[in-house]
Amino acid sequence: MKKYILIIFLILGTASVSSYVYADKAADPSGVTTGTASDVTAATPGQPTLDEVATQAGHNKVAINMVWLLITGFLVMFMQAGFAMVETGLTRAKNAAHTMSMNMMVYALGMIGFFISGFAIMFGGVGTLGTLGGFGGLANEFTINLFGHTFGLFGTKGFFLTGTYDVAVFGLFLFQMVFMDTTATIPTGSMAERWKFSSFAIYGILVGALIYPIYGNWVWGGGWLSQLGNMFGIGHGVVDFAGSSVVHMTGGVLAFVGAKMIGPRLGKYNKDGSPNPIPGHNIPMAVVGAFILAFGWFGFNPGSTLAGGDLRISVIAVNTMIASATGAFASMIYMWWFKTKKPDPSMMINGMLAGLVAITAPCAFVNVQSAALIGLISGVLVIEAAFFIEKKLKIDDPVGAVAVHGVNGAWGMIALGLFADGTYGDGWNGVKGTITGLFYGDASQFLAQLIGVATNIIYVAAIGYVVFKLTSLVTGGLRVSAKDELEGLDVPEMGTEGYAGIKMDKNSETPLSR
User: Fold this and answer.
1) Whether the Cβ atoms of residue 489 and residue 98 lie closer than 8 Å to each other
2) Which CATH number does 54-494 carry?
3) How far apart are alpha carbons 330 and 368 in whole angstroms?
């Protein structure tokens, strides 16, 4: 025993001596002295000039922004798993593989479309990418002149990312691509359980290549909606910090048009028009998916600063978190006390998501009390919208995508025009001064937001109708056959079961045996 103890002490002693002999400098467990002049890139190591220090500082600033942008982009990419779980959990087991497959492939298909043309259309005219290094090679906007003003319509640089071999552009592409993917996946919920996969696949490419980027250019790419302030003095133009309209409302309007055109699921409505409930098969899956989405939203909203050095990110993150909580709380209480006398889990999920959608546009411009109120209103609004869409409009939306993303995307834009408190956004869209809403003294910003909402509805509804109509003609219809729908889409459409080995009652969706 003593022999083994002696060996251990010899090993430890040798390691200690070696570390003392070969260490370049003393250990720094607190990190206080790590990072010195010798770490600055300089012609003479350890003796950087003032210009070399300034260059290093500039490089580090852009590097911090780039790393922040990429990490938050990775978080947003992970939201796709959340969407897949929410949508699959809130639909029936016989369609699980089909619903999951749409959520998987819309990522790939949408990305291909965005790579081919979407990025160029949306950001090909954006101008200088200041926080990411100042690359100015994207200043190629197609414009028209009306009323003595120049209206930007779409970008023309960066198809297939050609001519944009720059770190700033590639960082922006990744971040904006995953935002597009959020829009693309929203109709897979409203059209679930009856959408023909071939028709979906064509849509998946077109949403990234054409549908999403045009309105996105108008708001985020330097297009005409963003310039209403400069051209006509209407606030700071249309402002949407992280995408209540650009991302969510676009997806929600597409979801509405698609669900209307494809029609309700078989058995959803009785002859008198009254709806039948078709419950989802896996609430635990949907709840986990909702938490993944809420987690990813910390990339979605704070990441939209495009700058890790913008300390407003803490306000944005807290506003995002609070709105999600009050949205879920309001939905729970409203269902429990005023609707069904039960705290419906599916509405808790949609209430949380509605709060997140609604705070996405104003998250950087409002105080936390306003964020809480915006979330509370969204939690009630999503329920009333879902019931109205189902009962009055007779539109079957299995997961409530239109109410969550479309209605609350519009509410988020309006909320910005009401509650922006004037503490952030100086110079936004080239307009001097901070962004201030109606309740803080600027009615013109509220007007700009209303114009943005109306434009989104008109444009997206029109192009959505055209795209769904064309894909229907190409694939022989948007919808699967009645036989396949009744049996479940997993085997006829995807060639495999979502839950292999489990015998299902096709009417009740209850597992009978294994």
Assistant:
1) yes
2) 1.10.3430.10
3) 17
SS percent in the chain: helix, strand, coil, step 5: 65, 5, 30
Count, residues in the chain: 514
Q: Under a CB-based contact definition with an 8 Å cutoff, are residues 263 and 382 in contact?
A: no
Of 46, 35, 453, 490, nearest to 252 by C-alpha is 453
482, 86 Cβ separation under 8 angstroms: no
- What whole-number distance in Å separates Cα of residue 370 and Cα of residue 378? 12
Task: Specify the DSSP element, H or E, that contains 188.
Answer: helix 167-190
- Greatest Cα pair distance, the chain, in angstroms, is 95
CB 510 within 8 A of CB 282: no
| CB distance 256 to 191 below 8 Å | no
Q: What are phi and psi of 63, to 5 degrees?
A: -65, -40
d(CA 499, CA 492): 14
Residues 286 and 351: their CA atoms lie apart, in Å, by 13
Say how far apart CA 299 and CA 79 lie, in whole Å. 10
Taking CA 409 as the corner, what is the angle to CA 200 and CA 292, rounded to the nearest 5 degrees?
A: 70
pLDDT tens, residue order, the chain (514 aa)? 666 565 665 565 555 544 444 445 678 898 888 888 888 999 999 899 999 999 999 999 999 999 999 999 999 999 999 999 999 999 999 999 999 999 999 999 999 999 999 999 999 999 888 889 888 889 999 999 998 999 999 999 999 999 999 999 999 999 999 999 999 999 999 999 999 999 999 999 999 999 999 999 999 999 999 999 999 999 999 999 999 999 999 999 999 999 999 999 999 999 999 999 999 999 999 999 999 999 999 999 999 999 999 999 999 999 999 999 999 999 999 999 999 999 999 999 999 999 999 999 999 999 999 999 999 999 999 999 999 999 999 999 999 999 999 999 999 999 999 999 999 999 999 999 999 999 999 999 999 999 999 999 999 999 999 999 999 999 999 999 999 999 999 999 999 999 987 766 555 444 433 3
CA dihedral 318, 323, 324, 325 (to 10 degrees): 90
Per-domain residue ranges for the chain?
54-494
CB 400 within 8 A of CB 350: yes
Q: From start to end of 10-68, where are the E strands? A: none
Contacts of residue 108, defined as CB under 8 A and 6 or more positions apart, other chains included, come to 204
Q: What type of residue is 318?
A: V
DSSP designation for 148: T
DSSP 155: E
Neighbours of 219 (CB within 10 A): 25
Of 24, 63, 26, whose CA–CA distance to 46 is shortest? Answer: 24
